[in-house]
Each structure stands twice: as C-alpha cells, then as structure tokens.
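User: hey, got a sec? need Alpha-1,4 glucan phosphorylase folded
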Amino acid sequence: MSNYFTDEYTFLSEFKSRLERRYIIELKDASIRQKYHVLGEMVSEVIAKNWLETNLELHDIDHKEVYYFSMEFLMGRLITNNIMNLGLRDTIEKAFAMEDLDLNAIEHYESDAGLGNGGLGRLAACFLDSIASMGYPGFGNGIRYRYGLFEQKIEDGYQVEKPDDWLKEGYVWEVRKEEEAVLIPFGGYVSFEDGNAVYYPDEQIHAVPYDVPVVGNHNGMVTSLRLWNAEPTDKRPPHLNAFEYDTEIRRISGFLYPDDATREGKVLRIKQQYFFSAAGVQNIVRKHMAKYNDLSTLPDKIVIQINDTHPSLVIAELMRLLVDDYHIDWEQAWTITTNTCAYTNHTILAEALEKWPVDIFEPVLPRIYQIIEEINRRFCKGLLDSNYPQETVTKLAIIADGVVKMAHLAIVGSFSVNGVAALHTDILKNIEMRDFNTLYPEKFNNKTNGITHRRWLLHSNPELSAILDMVSDNWVYDPMELQKLVKKATTKKYRALIKKMKLAKKKALAERIYDEQGIELDPSSIFDIQVKRLHEYKRQLMNALHIMYVYNKLKSDADFKANYVPHSFIFGAKAASGYYFAKKVIKLINTIAHKVNQDPDTNELLKVVFVENYNVTYAESIMPACDLSEQISTASKEASGTGNMKFMMNGAITIGTLDGANVEIAELVGEDNIVLFGLTSDEVNSRYENGGYQPLDVYHNHVDLRLVIDQLTNGFFEDVDKEEFREISDRLLQQDHYFVLEDFESYRQAHERANELYKDEEAWFKASIINIAKSGYFSSDRTIRQYAEEIWNIEPLK
Ligand code: 26Q
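Assistant: Yep! Here you go:
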C-alpha cells in the first residue's frame, strides 16, 4: 500500500483525486463532509499497515496480554489523535495551506464517540492511549452502542435529551470482523445429563466484533478496541415474528444507559453486561486455545481487568466455559479464573454498588446463576469451615437477601482489587470493604488514576506545549520531566509566557461560547469552571448558591464590590435523564445566569454560563482555558476525579475539598498552590455515624446564606414560578446529606483567598506553573505502568 503522506504535493494530489473519484467533485466545490471522509480514509490506510504489523507481531510472540473490559469507552474524536500520533499533521497542514483549507474545521466534522457517561469511560479511553503509546500488548473490550450518551439541549433553562446518532454516516475508523462473531445464549433451562450440565438457551444472539484502532504515539504500534454489536441469528424464538426478533436483539447494543449510578435492576442492562463480557471471554479462550491448546496456562498469558463491576460476569462466564465446555474440574477452573481476573472499584456510593434481584437475574442467565450459586456456596462454606461467625458470612455472601452482589463476586473472583486514588483505596480497605480486606489483604491495592497528557496537553494546548518544549525536549515521552518547570516558577519570563498562553486559551473559549450561546465573557476575568456529570455529591449546587451570595454582595456591599476581581463562572454537566433533582440544579444555574448576566450593576464583574452539551471535544477547549478549577465534592464521595488532573496539567489552580485525587494534588503542589476548604473525609464519616448535622442551625446563624436560601422561593427569580426551586430549598434544610450548608462558609472563605491570590499576579502564575510542573505524576502512562508492573505482570513490546 502506498503512503501518500511523504510530502505535501503527493498528499494533495491524491486527496484531490479521491474527491473526484469518490464524490465526483473538485476540491474547490467539495463539502466539509466529503473532505473529512477522504482524509479519514487516507489516514485509515496508514493505520492499516501498522495495525496489521502489530497484530502479526502480537500473534507471533509468546507474551502476556491485558484485556481491559469496560461497559464504557468515552473516546471522543479520534482524527486529531491519529494524525498527530502518526506524525502526519505537518504534511497535511502544509498541503491544506496551499489550498487555503482549514484542517481544524475538517477535524471538527468528526462526531465524538460518546460511548460512556463520564469519568470511568474516559479513564478507559486514556488507558488505551497509554497502552498503545507505551507499546504494551493490550486491548479494549466493550459494546458498540448504536446510540452513545445523549446530546444535551437547553430549552428554557431545562435539560432536554436528544439521541446521539453518532453512526449515521458510518464510522471511518472501525473494521467489522464478521468472521470472528460468537454466539451468546440467553434464557432457557439447564438439565443435568450424565453428571454434566447441559444448557438449552431460549435464544442465541450473534455478537459481531467491530475493531477500532488505537494508535500509539510515534511508535508504529496500533492496538484494538473491540466493540461488540448484537445481531440476530437465523434461529428465531417461535413467539416472535422476524421484525420483533430483530428489534429485540438490536436493543442489546442499542444504547448506553445514561446513568452513572445504579437505578433499579433492568433486564436489558444485565443482558448488555453479559453480552459483551461473554463475547470477550469466548474470544479470549478461543484465541488462547488456538495458540497454546492448553487452558491451564491462561493466567500466564492473559489478564482481564474488570472496569467496575459492570463486566464482572466474566468471572462466571469463564467458569462456565472451563467447566461445561472444556470439562475442567471446578477447583482447577477456579484457580485459572481467579488468577486471570482483576477488578477495579470506582465508587463507594452505596446506591451505585450493583445488586441484581435474583428473580430478574436467574431467568435471563440460568446457567450463569447456577455457577454464581456454586461460587457462593463454596465461598461461604470456606468461611464457616475457618470459623467465621455466621453474621460475617451473611455480610460477605455473594447472594443474600434475594440479590446478587456484583462487587462481592468481583472481589471473590479476582486476584487483585484496586481503588483509584489513595484516599479512595483507604476508605475501601478500612470502611467499605473492611471485612474483605481482612480476609484477603493481599488483593487490595491502589492505582491512582491518570489522564493521557497527549490528548489533554500536547494536542489540546499547543501553546503550552511550545513553552514546555523550551524546558525539556523529552516531556512528551517522560512527563515527569515537567518538574523542570519548577525552577521557572520564580522567573518573570515564564510567568509572562504562561499568562499569555492562558489569555489566548480563554479568548478562544470565550469566542466559542459567544458563537454558540451569545454570552459575552471578559477574557481577563477569572474563568472559574466546574465541568463534570451533575450529581448531588459533586455539589454544583454549592457553587450556584455561592454565586447568588456574590451577586447579593455586589449589589449591597460597596467594599466587597471594590475588592472583587471580575469572574466568569462556567458550568458544563449532563444529568441522568431520570435524575429529577440534578435537572432542577441545571434549571437553577440557568436561572441565575439569566438574572445576573442582564444586570448592568454587576455584569462587568460577574457572568455565569452553562455550556450546552459538555463532552470530550468541548472539554478539550475548556481545560486549557481555566484559571480556577472547582473540585468541591463532599469529602469521601469522589473516588478520584480526573477532570481535576486535566485542569491542573493546563495550569489551573484547584479550589477543592480533600477528596479523591485532590488529596494527592495537594501533596504534590503544597498548600500554597491549592485552595483547600471543607470537612475532611473523617469528619464527614463521623457525622454520618452520629446522625448527620442540623442544617437549620447553619441557616439561622448565617445571615448571608439564609438570604440566598430564602431567595430560592421568595420570588427573587422573576421569570420562574415561586415554587420552581422549593424542592431544592427543602432538601437543603431538611436532609442536607452532602453538607452543602455546613461547608458553605468554608467554601466562601476559600473563594476570598482565591480572589486575593489572583490579584497577586506573581503569586498566581507561580502557583499555576507549579501545578503544571507537578502534573506529570497524573499522566496515565504512570498509572498504566503501575498496573502493568504491579497487577498485570506484562511487558511492553520492543
Ligand atoms: C451501573 C448500573 C446500572 C446503570 C448504570 C451503572 C453505572 C454506570 C456508570 C454506574 C457507574 C458508572 C460510572 C461511574 C464513574 O464514572 N465513576 C467515576 O470513575 C472515575 C474514574 O475512576 C473517578 O475518577 C470518579 O471519581 C468516579 O466517580
């Protein structure tokens, strides 16, 4: 296959010729869509060559591989990443310059692959990037959702969801591998014949893999994200007609659940979980047998990382294959399984821990249910035999009170259980999973999350990258080199460079916001940003209440006003479609924005924007444009956070609680370079143990806060019904589970400190530089290296 990217002329002539052949059009008349597709196709061909070579090499050598199983991969756009990592950007840009074409505009045509909700899905995408860029043998395994996370519109201040039809024009990067399709059984019954379980499913579903290339950075490596698509077979159950059958099957890979916390158990969700877990496991076992013809060596060659409990049925499915299909005895099958699987926990919120009611689970997956019962029976028997009290056994059981506890299955069936930040792992070990940690202390370990510095710094912030190049010629390959910037923090020159970079990125974001939403922001104001999923524990509401407080003060207190640095408060957040309270908070933020942005008394000093449809691509322009990064979750609730790392890497100062990875950020940058406030995780937990606190006391004792809360329901917002925010005020005053009122005063003071710090330009940019300099630790390359060395026991290819 020829490479058309050798120089700009060769590239351009092929580019034009393809437009003519494929779309019967000349370059000057071609649409963005046509140009995008031709470019994508040409880049794909370069990828194909490296991809094939990587596959052949992986096939030939005798080594261990990791399979990262995740229900979500929030990949965002791939074109920029692919062009940059392959080193094609220069050639394309030169060619396009000759024709006055804008590469950025063409890149922007690609729709985000939004196959994830938030942190967990984006983490999986960053991990794949690091695996490929460091040359580790590893693959992703997930679902090819027909519809990804919904597109958000804001209408009259309310969130409205639109389907994310991301595949409507096809997807240039994927390759359908029909030859590798597998069958996934559902329903039916099990009979025991000659001592063997024989499973007679109701229906079999075709799982057809689509592979998406994951291109390593300048290393020739291309690994794969395998996404499974559900398709009908020709054996249709008698009670459905062909159309009903087709529709029913396609629903399995139909859409991503837009919820990042568990609601009640849904049959479709469990089918999705089993569908991609079983397809992935079958694929692995088949490949391993073809290569080694011996399943006892599986754990020497394969490790399966289970991303939260969503894929934890791999444990039962692997047991099913080993015991039923390969007739390996239970004990040996269990040894193989538990030495192959490793589990990552991402949450300690009780409501997010997956529990499946037995009466839903069993009919859908009868054989898998039997296997889990047997795992549970042996596990409980082992505990009782070792004299654990019945009470403990009941607490730890995988099946109890009519539900299957997926986290318990994942812990019992894995050789490693990790949390995603130091504090989170501590809480898992000492509080949430305390008894399991006592039982299996060797399983528990921490792997603090990371983000790929290629996407989140190199690609999204070329201005900052150019500054970093002046300090190190190797930071892209060794992000710890960013530390060299520490000594520049005290130089005028570098502070000025960072200031200029920030201003440029803020201007660019302000332009986008103006173009899309017509709201004008002053780029010299503090860009104070909170972007993340909308959740009560993340406390966007506290941020909103504080803005109301600021507005009131600006209106009533001349000293305050004289002292106030202009602020632009920017929010971006999707709320799960069924999460009523979260949607109310979106409405509140928009209502505040509407009121304050129009007020001539204050709007030179205070602006509020809720950006529509916050997603990965939007994040790429938001992260670099931030001065103050809001990481304000109730301590102990945010497992890690990863947005906090993206902001830090781009030079923002964090205002935050000692929660998740904020704790590690604070340790790295030191107390002078972060603005901390609020209850600690121990304080939060001790309040829970002692029955919470009295929000009404805070309300009565804090005059300014009381005014804000009253304003929620006293007609202060002229254009909404007085009752619109009643539920918010009721919740705050009656059951403030997330300590919004209790932390408010401390948060308010933290903002005052941030305000003062910003006024001291020297101190501010010094802090900004220290944050960038220390952010190398949060590269997902570090995280993946730790997984590889401490859990997976795999090595990079040469
Ligand atoms: C489960 C069952 C049914 C429906 C939905 C779900 C579900 C889906 C997604 C439950 C949880 C999630 C996602 C969780 C998540 O994103 N957690 C975040 O993971 C990040 C990466 O480790 C952390 O940084 C965040 O702190 C954590 O909130």
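Quick note: The chain has a mean pLDDT of 96. Let me know if you need anything else on Alpha-1,4 glucan phosphorylase.
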